[in-house]
Amino acid sequence: MRLYGVFAGIFSAVLATVPVASTKIFSIGPLQLPGGTVIFPLVFILNDVLTEVYGYDGSRRIIWTGLACQGLAALTLAAVGALPPAASWPNQAAYDAILGFAPRIALASFAAYLCGEFANSFVLSRMKYRDAGRGGLRQGWRFLASTIVGEGVDSAIFMVVAYTGTIPSGDLWRTLATLYVAKVLYEAAALPFSIPFANWVKRVEGLDSIDSPATTNYNPFCVFSVQRRGPGVPGAR
Questions:
Q1: Which residues of 192-229 are buried (b: 16+ CB within 10 A; e: fewer)?
Q2: Is residue 41 assigned to a domain?
Q3: CA angle at 61 for the pair 184 and 182, rounded to the nearest 5°
Q4: pLDDT tens digits for the chain (237 residues)?
Q5: How far is CA 112 from CA 58, 63, 109, 153, in A?
Q6: Nearest in space to 151 (alpha carbons), one of 197, 191, 182
Q7: Which residues are CB-contacts of 41 (< 8 A; sequence separation ≥ 6)?
Q8: 134: three-class secondary structure by DSSP
Q9: Which residues are CB-contacts of 11 (< 8 A; sequence separation ≥ 6)?
């Protein structure tokens, strides 16, 4: 699997970046969004590609790899923040104001990502089995439908955990709705690129996995399980 490690690296980089970026809420006209919105939807797009090509088991391993990297980043920021500042360094208040909020954002990201990504991967995996792996409009619909479910779970958990008590409740729910719609539109706009990209990865890898419910362990915590292959299809469709 020549590209699998590349995807693992991209996932890890995005997930380590999102908690810090999300400490800022930016405005575009009437819209208010966490900074992580700029890059985070890329994770769901890549998860669609991963599940489409490598199956649920391959996606599950990268999800956990990304979560481990995000946890390491959060713990590092918290540990550095707790260290006494040097007398010559006057920026502790600024560090606490921005990065001091990061552990809570990281917890929100962790919980939201854990639930949202596995929901996304599960829905796409089952839809692909139902579709017998067919491409075209069916492939586009399973990419979009899995994102509608996964992003809904992710957005709700993230906003409630990250911002409850820090912003007015009306703003929280308005931002949640805006965030969800923006992410789904992001995915929809990316379909003309993500579908050809997924099919290109299939050709490069010579792999087009279809998860059979009879052979696939959908338990998200079985990270090191060995999946018995169902009717995987070599090559792209």
A1: eebbebbbebbeebebbbbbbeeebeeebeeeeeebee
A2: yes
A3: 10
A4: 889 999 999 988 988 888 788 778 888 887 777 788 888 888 889 999 999 999 999 999 999 998 898 888 888 888 999 999 999 999 999 998 888 766 677 788 788 888 999 999 999 999 999 999 999 999 999 999 999 999 999 989 988 888 888 888 888 888 888 888 888 998 899 999 999 999 999 999 999 999 999 999 999 988 765 554 444 444 444
A5: 20, 12, 5, 7
A6: 182
A7: 151, 183, 186, 187, 190
A8: coil
A9: 43, 46, 62, 63, 65, 66, 69
- How far is CA 116 from each of CA 3, 6, 47, 125, rounded to the nearest angstrom? 24, 22, 11, 14
The token pair that represents 123 in the structure block: 């829905």
> pTM above 0.85?
no
Q: Which residues, in sequence order, are bridge partners of residue 27? A: 32
Domain-embedded: residue 189: yes
Q: Are 164 and 172 in contact (CB under 8 A)?
A: yes
Is 232 within 8 Å of 224 (Cβ atoms)?
no
- How far apart CA 80 and CA 66 sit, in angstroms, is 21
Residue 195 resides in a domain: yes
Residue span of the structural domain in which 61 resides: 4-83+93-205
136: phi > 0 → left, psi -120 to 50 → alpha, else beta; which?
left
Instruction: Examine residue 61 and state whether it is found in any structural domain, yes or no.
Output: yes
What is the amino acid identity at position 170? G
Q: How many domains, the chain?
A: 1
Q: What CATH number should be reported for the domain holding residue 120?
A: 1.10.1760
